Every structure is written in C-alpha cells, then in structure tokens.
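Changelog excerpt

This revision adds worked examples to the README so contributors can see how folded entries look when concatenated. The first example is reproduced verbatim below.
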Amino acid sequence: MAKIFLMNEIEAIFFAYMIKETNWDIKDKLITQNSEHVRDVVSISSDHPEYKNLILYLMLVTYCLKFFLNERHEEILEEAIKICPGFKSIF
C-alpha cells in the first residue's frame, strides 16, 4: 500500500500505528461485505477471501490516513477505485 499510495515517512508511521490500534481486524463486517470487488495488487491469487479482506482493510486504513493528513486526497480516491471499484460505496 505504501508504494501504491505513495506514502511518506510520517504517513508510514501513522499507518503502522493505525494497524496496531485496530488489531488487524480484517473480519469486520464492512470489510467482508465489500471485499469481493477487490482486484489483485501484488500478483497473488485473489480467489482467497482472506487475501481480499486484507487488501481492502489496508486500503481503508491508507485512505483514512491520507484523507486526514493531506489536503489533496482526490488522487488517492482515484487510485483506490482502480483497485476496488465499489470503494466509494463503503463510506
């Protein structure tokens, strides 16, 4: 996610903190209901629901982080929609 969403050092620190605080909750109802739309980002078989849940979870954490720390978050949203076409509907 850091490479896809072009995270800087401060964002990476906040990213790690957010993941730790949420306890890697990839089985959250919001995640599991929307993960079927996730496209592969690292060339691993995307047939596994847990993999899609993880990717969507990391995308949500990254997007929230970028939205909070940056004024220009439209580009981040566009990148998220490329990976998960239904990304906007999650919010």
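The second example, added in the same revision:
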Amino acid sequence: MRVYQLEIVVTSDGLARPHFKCGLCGKIVTDAREANLVWNSEHTDKAVVVCKRGCDKLMRLTGSNQWIPLNVAMLYLLTNSKVDLKATNREAAILASVG
C-alpha cells in the first residue's frame, strides 16, 4: 500500500508539478473530485489516496472504513496549514500565465 503517493512531473519549461497517484492502481489523479482519501479508524496515520475507479471500494472492503473526498481533504489540509488562499490564487495565476 502506498501512503500519500506523490509523483513530481517536471514540464518542458522546468516547472515541477506534483500529482497524487492512486495508492492501489498507480494512476495519476487528474481531478481531486475523482479520488478519496481512505484510512482505517484504528490507523489514522496511514491514509491512502485512491481513485474512484473501483479502488476506493476495494480499500473499504479491506478494512479501511473511513474516507473523505480528496478535494475536501485538500481544503482541510490548506486550512490546517494556514495557507493564505488569496495569495496562493495570485501565485497560481502567475504560474498559469507562464506555462
């Protein structure tokens, strides 16, 4: 099982773009609404990102009985990390204009 599996994709212009990968099938998650963060209530330190292509149901069958949609989990993570969303949106707009 992969825990918080990230892949860093470096674009042709040299920018690093981190992506989540499904902890079961290994496919890159391209839409946070299409993945869940899944964990077992007894092991909250071992959450796994899984896609909704059946991997999330498989994880729940194997004892991972808690889950939250990845897009919602990311909002909680940003809030808990004290990320300034307005500043981040400005920086994202700058990065988007470059490539």
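Reviewer comment on example two: The chain has a mean pLDDT of 82. The radius of gyration is 15 Å.
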